[in-house]
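Input/output pair, single chain:
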Amino acid sequence: MTDPIVRPMTAEDRAAVIELLAGSDPWKRLGYQAGDWDIYFTPLPQGRDSYVVDQNGNVAGIAIVRQKFLLGDYLELLAVADWARGKGLGGKLLGHIEPIVFGRATNLFACVSDFNAQARAFYKKHGYQEIGPMPNFLIPGSAEILLRKTAGPARKS
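Output:
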């Protein structure tokens, strides 16, 4: 077994990424299905940094970063396959992305569903602060919580 590696996503990863997302929560609870992900990944997301974590030739996780969101970048998607959770792969993805983002911006934003206690704890462990909820953002009766990790103020007076 080789160590997992983070690499840019390629078109060859598309089917594995869609399968990973369509079969896991919170995406299922939020109503996303394989067809939604097929649309999102056709073509591969443009104008974004897209990475996968590769575990022995299998896509174990995905991260997509949109540049220039508020005064930073936005982690548009972060997911780890159910079979690969608890092995530090989400942290490995963040460890790859954050130096890139903080090399060009002072903030990295993300969102997490209010019902996703595991993801909320994960982001807190990695230094993200909960900024505030956006009620009824994706599904009725649930909020998406805006998160921020910062390297300091955008302006240094």
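The chain has a mean pLDDT of 94. The radius of gyration is 15 Å.
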